[in-house]
Amino acid sequence: MAHPHGSAPPKSQRLGLREFLGVFQYSRRAVELVWTTSRLLTVIIAALTLIGGLMPAAAAWVGQKIVDAVVEGAAISAQGGVPDLQLAMGWVALEGGIMVVLSAVQKGLNVCQSLLRAMLGHRVNVLILEKALTLQLSHFEDSEFYDKLTRARREASSRPLSLVNRTFGLVQNGISLISYAALLLAFSPWAVLVLVIGGLPSFMVEAKFSGEAFRLFRWRSPEARKQMYLETVLAREDYAKEVKLYGLGPLLLQRYREIFQLVFSEDRKLTLRRGAWGFGLGLLSTAAFYGAYAWIAFAAVQGTISLGEMTMYLLVFRQGQSAVSASLSSIGGMYEDNLYLSNLYEYLDQGIEAEAGTAIEGPRPGEGVRFENVSFTYPGAKTPALSKIDLHLVPGKSLALVGENGSGKTTLIKLLTRLYEPTEGRILLDGLELSEWDPQHLRTRVGVIFQDFARYQMLVGENVGAGDVDHFSDEQRWREAAELGMADDFVQDMPAGYQTQLGRWFKDGRELSGGQWQKIALSRAFMRSQADILVLDEPTAAMDAEAEATVFEHVRNLTADRMAILISHRFSTVRSADHIVVLDHGQVIEQGDHTGLMANGGRYARLFTLQAEGYR
Ligand SMILES: Nc1ncnc2c1ncn2[C@@H]1O[C@H](COP(=O)(O)OP(=O)(O)OP(=O)(O)O)[C@@H](O)[C@H]1O
């Protein structure tokens, strides 16, 4: 949720019972997730939980038997008789046995839970990433959606297991509690009531504050994202150069600190209030316990119960009380887990418009690409980035787009590659609208490099191979593409040739120059040998003039029956295109070939002459 920096977090709302229960809607999905992650581990955990639940009451009962046997034995000894030693020793041995089982159960639970935790964390991360693959570019550019993604990634992976553990914990404590109650009932039903009611106040506090903590977490997720971003800028190699030279470090670090202060001051308030209330209401539980203690001791003094029974009741009452508070805090924790899971599921359930097209050919093959009255406005933007564009790109021809920064050239390519849909008008390939094409097939027909192409910290060869996933690791194809993209020569000279690691993140990683990276990106586009539309968005800006000339020679040779779209600010390159389109503020203001446009004496002619003069 976007909010102006520094605004106060939302006030806590009163939590009605319905709202409280409604929040548990994700429990079923979380249990399902855990169950499908590992049935075996889930079953073992459930079984151990049940066994673990019965053990404490059994131990308390045996404890009573020990004390009574000892008291009885002592009385016999006092009267000069011979007590039955074996009986008391037998009970002690049994209690020892129960403790061994209990500790085995607890260890087993820990082991299973850590295994399941690792598996589940991985599973949830994969779910999150799989979903990310289905998202559209516009999602990544939407800050509110990005918050959802960040929140899901930060908290969600540990929550399903925690929820399931707490559910089991609740069952376990429930079983213990029932067995304690059964023992305690013999003393007095009222004692059972005191036991249960004593735990309620602390529970109310937990429920109230976990809701508040969650609202705080949601409120500050844009802050958390800013902090993550600053961490990236301050600690990553690709920013280090500028941060150092411009001395940005202290300023950015100060920002980082300020965000922490803002977030921490809210956290501190909440933590203090939570602690104070927890302590105050916790006193009630202590009072309930000592009230019951006095009552039980009184009964023993009066002789209504034996010493053994008194020991057992006290133990049962104390443990019962912790079972009550553990159960209630399990419920509170489940509530909290559910709140955090709502983030995960909100993100996973985000509706994605299906890319519905299925066509793999159009009615007029060979017609090429047509833009018909195409307009486009970015989500949230006030003015259109493109308006009323009409264009026809014919196979075998090349098209150059020129225009000032921000005139809409890259946007036009984003529409052609279906990263965005036109807000108005339509784009046709072979006579069929782009949205009706099978998206996979459409992608194989277009090879594109953007000016901000990705620099993967992988092998040089893989950086080329990325252009065609089917041949991602095919060294022969890497070479062919790299020759066309002018990268082969310098790659051969690298220490491990095509197997050289790029980037500084990993061992022995090499860095490339700007022009070399561009050659890699160009080669990547040449990997798309099936593509009949080749789009180069300022591909040669960092290359030297000779390399640029050769690359265009290659593009021209390739485009016998293909289409090439070229964006460039270098008119020496642009002039060789068959058709030139001049964009200004999202509109086509001139088009034609170089000679025609020069003869026109319009914007193109002016810009061309200006640049040509610069070279004289
Ligand atoms: N993701 C985006 N969201 C909102 N507006 C955008 C986005 N990308 C670009 N714009 C806006 O759309 C307009 C056209 O941008 P575009 O990137 O198409 O220009 P360009 O002609 O390729 O510029 P350049 O020569 O600088 O590469 C600009 O005003 C820009 O601010």
TrEMBL record:
GO terms for molecular function: ABC-type oligopeptide transporter activity; ATP binding; ATP hydrolysis activity. PROSITE patterns: ABC_TM1F, ABC_TRANSPORTER_1, ABC_TRANSPORTER_2. Keywords: ATP-binding, Cell membrane, Membrane, Nucleotide-binding, Transmembrane, Transmembrane helix, Transport. It is a multi-pass membrane protein. Residues 369-610 form the ABC transporter domain. Its main location: membrane. The chain crosses the membrane at residues 40-62, 177-200, 276-296. Residues 43-336 form the ABC transmembrane type-1 domain. This is ABC transporter, transmembrane region:ABC transporter. It comes from Plesiocystis pacifica SIR-1.
